[in-house]
Design brief:
Blueprint: H1 2-13, E1 28-32, E2 36-37, E3 45-54, E4 58-61, H2 65-72, E5 77-87, E6 91-100
Antiparallel strand pairs: 1-5, 2-5, 3-4, 3-6, 5-6
Length: 101
């Protein structure tokens, strides 16, 4: 009984919505994806919206494009990018980066 309970807790701790599959390994993952160009608007402003995940149990933040646009007052989007960071699957963060005017 104790063994299955411990296995269940470990399995729960190793899951999370912010984890990133990668060939780099499990200990430390930092991935910067290539930006997706949305329009030809100049990139005069940069907005960022972040969220985090702790132990696969606690998650907070708004990583929407809308939130990133509002943080910098962007009306026309030039590009959208994403940053992902994970440490042993215990702590993960995801940020959406929007540039535009």
């Amino acid at each position: 009984m104790k063994k299955s309970l411990l296995l269940g807790i470990v399995a729960l701790a190793l899951t999370g919505c912010a984890m990133v599959p990668s060939n780099l390994g499990f200990a430390l993952i930092q991935a910067d994806k290539e930006a997706v160009t949305a329009t030809d608007a100049p990139a005069r402003r940069v907005g960022k919206a972040c969220g985090f995940n702790l132990l696969g149990i606690i998650a907070a933040g708004d990583i929407s494009i809308k939130e990133a646009k509002q943080s910098a007052g962007i009306q026309r989007v030039s590009s959208v990018d994403k940053e992902v960071f994970s440490l042993l699957g215990l702590y993960s963060s995801v940020c959406t980066i929007v540039t535009g005017e």
